[in-house]
Amino acid sequence: MSLRLRFALACSGVSLLLGALAVAGVYLLVRQNLEYRTDLLTPDSITVLGGRYFPRHDDYYEVARANAMRVRTVYQRDTLAAVRTTGALVVLAAAALAFPVGWRAAAWVLRPLRAVTATAREVAQSHDLTARMDYRGPRDELLELTGIFDTMLGRLARSFDGQRRFVANASHELRTPLTINRTLVDVAVRRPDATEDVKRLGESLLVVNARHERLIDGLLALAEGEQAVLDRRPFDLTDVAEHVLDQAAAEAAEREVTIHRLLDSAPTSGETVLVERLVQNLVENAIRHNHPEGEVWVTTRRRADWVELVVANTGLPVPPYEIETIFEPFRRLHGDRLRSDRGSGLGLSIVRVITDAHGGAVVARPRDEGGLTVTVELPADQSAP
After folding, report:
1. What ranges in the chain are assigned the alpha helix state H?
2. Using an 8 Å Cβ cutoff, are 278 and 350 in contact?
3. Angle of helix 58-126 relative to helix 141-190, nearest 10 degrees?
4. What are 71-92's pLDDT values in tens digits?
């Protein structure tokens, strides 16, 4: 039950309880006042019965006393019944009236809380930690709560900004010497007087250098993907997938991997550069973590309010207990940490970060025949037909 409904039911219950107590008190008071009193039925007090005067005789007194007691009994019974019936109806009516009154009162009391909740929901959905509650009202518990929430958002924003700046700065500082190293090694290898040993060493250094460059690019993409996607532009996920598959065709042919395209219209919105990186990582993983003459299936489709990208591939069997760990940074399947041609271990981490930034979800599951199936769901563009 919502807080508003509980408040209305509490008002109705309190009204019912207090009304029942009030009726019970009135009932006991009336009953006590209608109890038998011996001082009211004495020979001196009974002088007229049935409109006639009676002498003060014991027989007449007993008759009058019996009649008076019968009248009192009937009167007491009817009065107490009327108190019970009328009181119960009044209490039920008051409880029924207290519910809508409590419902309206709860709406008035919770109005500031709904505004705060709406702002918090916008912050959560947009991933924009720079937003604040900025609640202005009386100095009460709600003002204190929003102040604490704003302080927490400020600390989180500073923490995430510091982390992103560190990754970006570190990646930039590392990229420059790697670029210089690649240039120097390439020049040394291409010199006419370079020996075969120098060329082999240079080629090995270029491979290691390329792996480090991919690692730095992955760190930059991971830092950028964690930022909020505020500028959402509509596009078709199918166009992005086709572009990525065209670029990956040469590598797939080199590794003797067949790609099957099952692309239907999938309109969505977001940052196309980040989504392209998402699709690229999934396709590259499917090609590189495969075996010769393997297959890759890439599917895009729309389902109600969501669009799906499904990338499945053949390959080595994947244990179910490793499914969640492959989305962690620098985690590789089958303990493969030396094969530089299979990436830096950030591919699926970047996929999850970009998916979360777009308000979507990513799920992976092993195929019975070996390999992996990764499904990415993104919100569909409602303006598209």
Report:
1. 3-33, 58-126, 141-190, 196-225, 237-254, 272-288, 347-357
2. yes
3. 20
4. 677 777 888 888 888 888 988 8
Question: What is the DSSP secondary-structure string of 62-130?
Answer: HHHHHHHHHHHHHHHHHHHHHHHHHHHHHHHHHHHHHHHHHHHHHHHHHHHHHHHHHHHHHHHHHT-TT
Q: Class of 233-379 per CATH?
A: alpha beta
Look at strands 52-53 and 361-366 and give their pairing: unpaired
Q: How far apart are CA 358 and CA 339, in angstroms?
A: 31
CATH number of 127-228: 1.10.287.130
The token pair that represents 91 in the structure block: 């209490």
Distance, C-alpha 308 to centroid of its chain:
20
- 230 burial type by CB count under 10 A (0-12 exposed, 13-18 middle, 19+ buried): exposed
**Phi (first) and psi of residue 372, to 5 degrees:** -145, 150
First CA to last CA across the chain, in angstroms? 37
Measured distance CA(39)–CA(44) in Å, rounded: 10
Question: Token pair of 346, please?
Answer: 């950030």
pLDDT score at 333: 59
Tell me the residue type at 39. Answer: D
Q: Residues 6 or more apart from 2 whose CB is under 8 A from it? A: none
Domain boundaries, the chain: 3-126, 127-228, 233-379
Contact partners, residue 340, CB within 8 Å, separation at least 6:
207, 208, 210, 211
- For CA atoms 324, 325, 327, 333, give the dihedral sign: negative
- List pLDDT tens digits, range 35-83: 665 555 555 545 544 444 445 555 655 666 676 677 677 777 888 888 8
Cα separation, 162 vs 218, whole angstroms? 18
Residues of the chain with pLDDT under 70: 1, 35-65, 67-68, 71, 125-128, 215, 218-219, 221-231, 329-345, 384-385
CA atoms of 318 and 264, how far apart (whole Å)? 28
Q: Supply the pTM of this predicted model.
A: 0.54
CA distance 53 to 151: 92
pLDDT at position 50 is 46
User: Residue 309 in contact with residue 241, Cβ under 8 Å?
Assistant: yes
